[in-house]
Amino acid sequence: MEVDVNTHAARIADQGYTIVEDAIDMGLINSLDEDLRRLERDLHIIPAGNVFEGTHTTRIYNLLVHGPLYESVPVHPSILPICEKVLDPGLLVSSLSSIAIGSGETPQPIHADDQVLPLPKPHPATVCNTMWALTDFTEENGATRIIPGSHLASESPDLVTSYESIPAEMPKGSVLVWHGSLWHGGGANTTDTRRVGIAMNYCAGYIRQQENQQLGIPRETAKHFPRRLQQLVGYGIYNGLIGHIDKHLPAKILLDDPEDAFLLWDYAKPSSS
């Protein structure tokens, strides 16, 4: 599917979010949904039992360690270019997890994904997050609730306050993409079926990741990732400086790779005089 990256990025700049309908092939969507059910069984996943994660919601974190099926999510060609436009090509995988909102779940507190960062608001995007719809997202089954334009607010929401919001309804196979300052939260599920999504979250290259990808993913697993995915989980450097290891690419600890970093300092050569 060809995506108009500039149009979607402009919507995010204006409203704080966009919905890319029919972005993901149904074969991949169904495979992901089926495998998440397998993981829930094998890992004995149960709801966390707190209001924020949900008392009727199951979540599986660190999905990149659970098989090659998930490697296609961070680098998907319909979505990654939009996130690169919102942040920049130096972005990182911040977190990759699943969220299955079960019947009877109550609304998640409205929050902003970047509100833990000590930055005055509004500010340029430091986080760009996405929600892949593995089922239809409706108001009744817990579609993500959003407050359009709230990414431009001068503050973050109070987690104990109720706010007027709208559901980001979208058909299965669609993806919601939003600015990290957007006020949002999972919706209540008043149906008898699950609302299942994959939260593929990115951060700017200079922001610490939500899940520590380097420690959470065994090196033996990361060694076999495609080069772009290695960069996205932190085995690259940002703007020629941030994240290097003794002036080398972090990827060199995975394999003896002839390609190495060209650091920011290399641009400042001494004069010949």
Labels describing this entry:
273 residues; alpha+beta; Jelly Rolls; 2 domains; 6-stranded antiparallel beta sheet; 3-stranded antiparallel beta sheet; 6 helices; 19% helix; 16% strand; globular
Nearest-angstrom radius of gyration? 19 Å
Q: What's the arrangement of strands in the largest beta sheet?
A: 1-7-4-9-3-2
Low-confidence stretches: none
> What summary fits the major beta sheet?
6 strands, antiparallel
* Subunit arrangement of the protein: single chain
Query: From N to C, what is the helix and strand string?
Result: HEHEHEEEEEEEHHH
Could you say which overall geometry the principal axes of the C-alpha atoms support? globular
Going by helix content, strand content and strand pairing, the class is alpha+beta
User: Percent range for helical residues?
Assistant: 10-25%
How far is the first residue's CA from the last residue's CA? 55 Å
- Into how many domains do the coordinates divide? 2
* Overall strand count: 9
- Determine and state the CATH class of the largest domain: Mainly Beta
Number of helices: 6
Overall average pLDDT:
92
What percent of residues are in strands? 15-25%
CATH architecture of the largest domain: Sandwich
CATH homologous superfamily annotation of the largest domain = q2cbj1_9rhob like domain
CATH topology (fold) name of the largest domain: Jelly Rolls
Your description of this structure?
The chain is an alpha+beta fold and 273 residues long. The protein folds into two domains: 5-235, q2cbj1_9rhob like domain (Jelly Rolls); 239-273, no CATH class. The chain is built from six helices and nine strands, in the order H-E-H-E-H-E-E-E-E-E-E-E-H-H-H. It has helices at residues 5-15, 26-42, 80-86, 213-216, 219-222, 227-235; strands spanning 17-20, 57-60, 92-101, 127-133, 145-146, 166-167, 175-179, 184-185, 195-203. A six-stranded antiparallel beta sheet has the order 1-7-4-9-3-2. Strands 6-5-8 form a three-stranded antiparallel beta sheet, with no helix packed on it. The radius of gyration is 19 Å and the shape is globular.
